[in-house]
Amino acid sequence: MDLVQLIYASTVSEQFKESDLSVILGSAKQRNNAESVTGILCFNGKNFMQCLEGGRRQVNTIYANILADERHQDAELLTYGPIDKRSYSQWEMGLVPQEALTHSLNLLYTASGQFAPYEMSGASAEQYLRAMRTAIPLL
Amino acid sequence: MDLVQLIYASTVSEQFKESDLSVILGSAKQRNNAESVTGILCFNGKNFMQCLEGGRRQVNTIYANILADERHQDAELLTYGPIDKRSYSQWEMGLVPQEALTHSLNLLYTASGQFAPYEMSGASAEQYLRAMRTAIPLL
Amino acid sequence: MDLVQLIYASTVSEQFKESDLSVILGSAKQRNNAESVTGILCFNGKNFMQCLEGGRRQVNTIYANILADERHQDAELLTYGPIDKRSYSQWEMGLVPQEALTHSLNLLYTASGQFAPYEMSGASAEQYLRAMRTAIPLL
Amino acid sequence: MDLVQLIYASTVSEQFKESDLSVILGSAKQRNNAESVTGILCFNGKNFMQCLEGGRRQVNTIYANILADERHQDAELLTYGPIDKRSYSQWEMGLVPQEALTHSLNLLYTASGQFAPYEMSGASAEQYLRAMRTAIPLL
Amino acid sequence: MDLVQLIYASTVSEQFKESDLSVILGSAKQRNNAESVTGILCFNGKNFMQCLEGGRRQVNTIYANILADERHQDAELLTYGPIDKRSYSQWEMGLVPQEALTHSLNLLYTASGQFAPYEMSGASAEQYLRAMRTAIPLL
Amino acid sequence: MDLVQLIYASTVSEQFKESDLSVILGSAKQRNNAESVTGILCFNGKNFMQCLEGGRRQVNTIYANILADERHQDAELLTYGPIDKRSYSQWEMGLVPQEALTHSLNLLYTASGQFAPYEMSGASAEQYLRAMRTAIPLL
Amino acid sequence: MDLVQLIYASTVSEQFKESDLSVILGSAKQRNNAESVTGILCFNGKNFMQCLEGGRRQVNTIYANILADERHQDAELLTYGPIDKRSYSQWEMGLVPQEALTHSLNLLYTASGQFAPYEMSGASAEQYLRAMRTAIPLL
Amino acid sequence: MDLVQLIYASTVSEQFKESDLSVILGSAKQRNNAESVTGILCFNGKNFMQCLEGGRRQVNTIYANILADERHQDAELLTYGPIDKRSYSQWEMGLVPQEALTHSLNLLYTASGQFAPYEMSGASAEQYLRAMRTAIPLL
Amino acid sequence: MDLVQLIYASTVSEQFKESDLSVILGSAKQRNNAESVTGILCFNGKNFMQCLEGGRRQVNTIYANILADERHQDAELLTYGPIDKRSYSQWEMGLVPQEALTHSLNLLYTASGQFAPYEMSGASAEQYLRAMRTAIPLL
Amino acid sequence: MDLVQLIYASTVSEQFKESDLSVILGSAKQRNNAESVTGILCFNGKNFMQCLEGGRRQVNTIYANILADERHQDAELLTYGPIDKRSYSQWEMGLVPQEALTHSLNLLYTASGQFAPYEMSGASAEQYLRAMRTAIPLL
């Protein structure tokens, strides 16, 4: 049962309400916990960039659920492939605080200087998320 | 707009009827034609293994539609990533004839000798599909 | 004096007239001949994709002239770098016939299946132009 | 939208006045800020060597403007290509103080020991500019 | 006489009794000492993951004995090959304390987050055992 | 379910009778057929060198059975690892005719010029068996 | 005694007379024959590009003599280094006929399209001379 | 028992008589046959260059005998190391006819154009001997 | 005159007396000093493992003398080849104290855990000797 | 204008007087300063080993002058090729004090343990000179 890592970008849909984020995060943590999937999530109020890592079947099951969730749309895979070791095993789903998505960090990896996950190559997305790990508060 | 290639495996659901294949293939060709996505499909009456290649956004849109299609389930990405050149540009969606999925060819790339896409590594899946290209009848 | 290769994409401006192509090509050949620059040009009535190769100074001088030409706009470098040997030395500026820019060839290297040079990565652009060499009529 | 890096050399024209530098720098910063382009500029009173990094379209638009600016001439690309991460994201356009262009630093990367950007290979230019980063005063 | 390293996974059989572990370990140490085989053993009450290193003949003789031992079953090689230098030469057979097989460490290298050696690729198994070295108490 | 390849050497035991070979081969073919394992076997009346390829679990189950078979002894793994594609998929267990194990072929890969599988490195064993493929009669 | 290869460019001096070429070539052949040095010479009436290969000491002795010859000047090494095998062992000093130095061949490797050895990188010079081998008449 | 290859150079001593060559060769063949060592020998009346390949112990035993043979002296190893497959398995000790050691072949790999094995690097010696294989008459 | 490194194993002969070691070492130092050969020697009362480094001719001359020395036998080359820089230039012939040849160090690089140089691959022997450097007392 | 590095060895001629060294060094510094060439010089009273680095034309001009200087002879190139960055830019021509050419340093890189530049491979010469940099007194 191969370990894989998947990073995707998506956009909130019209029916997304601000309060949905904590609901999404809560159920993501529950679901990930059940499936031993780990990861990290960036959200700026409009776009998501999320990394999922775990068993190939589990990560795909969760990605299918994510695609079916009507609160966001236009999901686009940035990178996907086998790994020997996880990068985000501390978090069922670590939420990067929105204030950590600073202009100066975005500028390092994107053309616009915005939090703009669709713009990113797979390689830039991986580096961006790794740089975000230190921004997640420890519980 | 990066070119990408995506290969996935899936399984027919209970509500799949034999006549659905040509319907699925027909609408896939239409949809792919509209989005300039090309690819190749293997099906043995139970499992699908499909390759999609085209623009990153388009391939992802189509993959989301595929995941939403209730005629199959348990979709699992085998490999995904950027390419410089397509491998299946001749086909809107080339159907590999079921009789081409022979035991001797399956044995080359799988443990069971069956058409068993979930068993395959990404590298084996790529090689398997390339070997299948000559089996598709030219129109 | 290093040999370099440069590939760019651009778009006709409003003031471009159909008859301008042969004028552009004629003066390009004259200018390239004077500077020992060689290359290849694709044009579909709307977009240009052109490769220039020669001395670093000469290629840059000509590229500056091209940028100043008001008959096209939005020039964008696809790739640039040193080479040991030219690829298009037979042509002062070889024009790929528009009918050679077929859907099936475009589909191999672009997401849209159109002649869409802005979409192309540097690597795809290099491969596309190499594939075009055989389409240029010998004089 | 790919991130790219572009380094070029150029020479002041006859109509360049000493006071132009701060004008050029001011408008470069404004323009770069608007386009989220970042970079670094060396100038010794006669030659410029400048690095631009950002989105492929934006960097090319700005380079076209630079080529059209009559205060300098003979622009020549030293290196150009895709990057995963910027190197000069702290500066809209960081000006290297002229006194930092020392003989001993120039000697490391050029044949003449002068500030002589046209002499440099792409690889030397990249290393030269990286070495210059520490010379730019923080605001 | 080539040095080799072998890592395998196995499962206790029905006839395995809790007290067997120390018996197994004791005789393993004796046997390994006699054959100058060294290694490391993880056991969670149900599954074993063991690394053996030493001469090619000796490691194979011991592995054959292990396969013949009815207290466990379903042995599966994870990785095997020549080495220039041993990794576990301090231990005739180092037992990793069961409490060191934590969820957080398992999660780093497996899909399930359990101690699940059959799930592991050879590369993950090697890294997992290396990470375990510090958990073995020195005598 | 990963595909693996395993090559081992062994020696007949005292209780081996000449007529055992066809019995062994017959049951190997049956067992391999049931487990979709394929391979090739060399035997000179005294030593065996055998390659097994198939699913990781199946190959290991069969190897455990082989180790338990008292008609041979001193089994020693020469090489083992994951593969993307089988090399011997035509044969449930292809028997290399003893007369094909010629001195001149043995000399290419061994120090003694005998059929001496224990002497071989993993790399030599793989090349030796590949060279033997053409010697197996087609049925 | 290491084998080396040396390629240099030079220019005729004012005192060079057309009849000197055959004199130079004749004495080069004699000297090379005595030192077992081999090579190839291109000359267009103004510039020389010559390759010498042989023992490190011998090639250096001959190069020193060449530098002392007042019939040419401005010698510049294009490339120099150890080789395992000579490339021009058929010729004591093979003269490439001047008519073989065609514009189309020069254009492949130089910025000017002229026979311009000083312009060439070491890599281009090596490729240019290799391409010239077929142009030398066999005796 | 690793396969190795050893190439050395040596020189006839004063007590060497012309008739010794066939004696040396005869006993070398006998000895090599007994030890399953194979190889190739070049001799020009003054210098030997010989390749021995076989088991590590056997090749070293024979090399020790060679060093003790007073008919030649100044033996010098050119290259030595493990191999997966022999290069000269057809010959107990293939003698390259002296007339095959031509000036033109020597010139390809030596500075002097002579048969001069002491001059050769290990890499040149290996290539030289491989080129000599076709010169040995088949019996 | 190429620098080479040679490592060999050997065994004391029947006529070896304990007092011979310091004699051997003394004459080795004298001889090495005269030939500018350096190295390191391990001896456990029964086997030698020695590294010689220096000019190709000198190292070979000394190795020939070593082979002719009747106080030891069965010399076997472990590794031999060109080097850019010596590893043991501090010692004319550094003697590793016998008590430094510990079981735990031997176990790292050999199958038997003994000081067993014949068992070692060339790569293991190089690493073993490097690890021994710190054990030699400085004078 | 490519940066290159050149290292050569030479020998004093009969007419060399001890006082010539400072004359040579003084004019070398002047000449190098004028041509922006930098480097390092070792001299033991008999042999020179010198590194020159700078523009390709300038380094070659100076090397030609050196060859014409009758105070030394037998100049032999050890290595030559393009560089991105100089290694000796602090010195117009840094003189390594003769007492820094110690036996122990020479032994590291040469067969004789002498200062013997002709013996050195290009790779050893580069490492030797780099090791010498710290021996040059700062002014």
**Morphology of chain A:** globular
Indicate the structural class of chain A.
alpha+beta
Largest sheet, spatial ordering of strands of chain A: 4-1-3-2-5
Any idea what the CATH architecture of chain A is?
Answer: 2-Layer Sandwich
Summarize the main sheet of chain A. Answer: 5 strands, mixed
Assembly classification:
homodecamer
Examine the coordinates and then state which fold CATH places here, giving the name of the CATH topology of chain A. Answer: Alpha-Beta Plaits
Task: Figure out the total of helices of chain A.
Answer: 4
What does this structure look like?
Ten copies of one chain form a homodecamer. Chain A has 139 residues and is an alpha+beta fold. Chain A has one domain (3-135): Alpha-Beta Plaits (2-Layer Sandwich). Chain A has four helices and five strands. The first copy, chain A, has a five-stranded mixed sheet, sandwiched between helices. In chain A, β2 and β3 (47-55) form a beta hairpin. Chain A binds chain B through residues 2, 4, 6, 56-57, 60-61, 63-64, 67-68, 74-77, 79-82, 118, 121-122, and chain B through 2, 4, 6, 56-57, 60-61, 63-64, 67-68, 74-77, 79-82, 118, 121-122.
